[in-house]
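Hallway conversation turned thread

IA: we were arguing at lunch whether anyone had actually written out Ferredoxin end to end. Turns out nobody had. So, for the record, here is the sequence (58 residues) and right after it the structure tokens. Reply here if something looks off.
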Amino acid sequence: MLSQVCRFGTITAVKGGVKKQLKFEDDQTLFTVLTEAGLMSADDTCQGNKACGKCICK
């Protein structure tokens, strides 16, 4: 029998000078993590298609 292993991680997101620790699963995109945390609106972005530059990593 095969079992699926799911990995988890954390990132630190900064918005308006406020830092927030976010947990994520290995199959989630940065866009999904930020929108689910309420740090980014899906309505005024490119939906994670790398066009608007709002969900960037440093």
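OS: looked through it. The domain at 1-57 is CATH 3.10.20.30 (Ubiquitin-like (UB roll)).
IA: good, adding that to the notes. The longest strand covers residues 8-15.
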